[in-house]
Amino acid sequence: MIELEGLTKHFGKKVAVDNLSFTVRPGVVTGFLGPNGAGKSTTMRMMLDLDNPTRGRVRIDGRHYRDLDEPLKYIGALLDAKAMHGGRSAYNNLLCLAQANRIPARRVAEVLDVVGLTAVAKKKSKGFSLGMGQRLGIASALLGDPEILMFDEPVNGLDPEGIHWIRNLMKALAQEGRTIFVSSHLMSEMALTADHLIVIGQGKLLADTSMADFIHKNSRSYVRLRTPQRERLLDVLHGAGMIAVESGNGTLEIDGATTEALGELAAEHRITLHELSAQRASLEEAFMQMTAGAVEYHAHSTGDLPDAPPPTGPAAPQWAPRNEGA
Ligand SMILES: Nc1ncnc2c1ncn2[C@@H]1O[C@H](COP(=O)(O)OP(=O)(O)OP(=O)(O)O)[C@@H](O)[C@H]1O
Asked: Which domains does the chain have, with CATH numbers?
């Protein structure tokens, strides 16, 4: 378990991390989401005692990182895949790390196998592609067989097969009861991987919620229609108390109606339809909206979100309240 309490980091006048408090629990994959510059890497660096907080604290299984004996056996991390010694082979990079942390040498071959680098174990890591470097970084995180694993943007540079692999690896590690904390700036990626979400924007906590809740609250359902009798259909919809919004290319979007009801309404009025389809707004859209709004909340010293903002159009998602499902 990882616990943050009021964690804050200033770089000069820049507030990179602003009073973050949340808990990362075992047995699930927790996604750490925020746009570029939101403060994810800085938060992770403070979790690993690589940066000192300006205020607040982090506890790893109840203790400060520097009070852990043999920390790699508690927490493994992939922060910067390029941090390896390029002149050393993959095997030797891991062996040095193992020896420095009193981890048995046999573990090196085991983790190389897990990440699929056995065939290139003797090659110097400076010749590795970005994807191979990521795999080597993941191997180093797994080396101490820790209960807690942190990955900063682990899918960077991976091809689709690699992305699929890391996704399944994280889920499998969580199923073993480990604590998995993974950062990304891509909602679409997290939607496929994470069970729980921590969202930050400009260093502040925006959401701490289960993925299921986030999807439930932010997936807007609507029906998309195309018709050559646009004006007539708009009149009919208006008469039925429905509001249609134009979304370009002659398509109309209607909230709060089913395809069945709209199909029957159109048939009743002998209106030809060229398209009638149920749609769901993407989570990426909801995430962008949530994080883009972060700047508006500087004045809220408690960090609480205000009530839902007024919708700006058919794509406006609802807000996921903080701390739900936490
Ligand atoms: N050493 C530093 N000195 C000054 N400013 C810094 C330093 N490290 C980070 N920052 C600033 O703090 C903010 C948060 O950066 P951070 O790298 O933690 O964000 P991030 O969410 O990880 O972004 P990305 O997805 O781009 O990696 C940014 O505005 C960044 O420019």
From this structure: 2-210 (3.40.50.300), 221-280 (3.30.70.980)
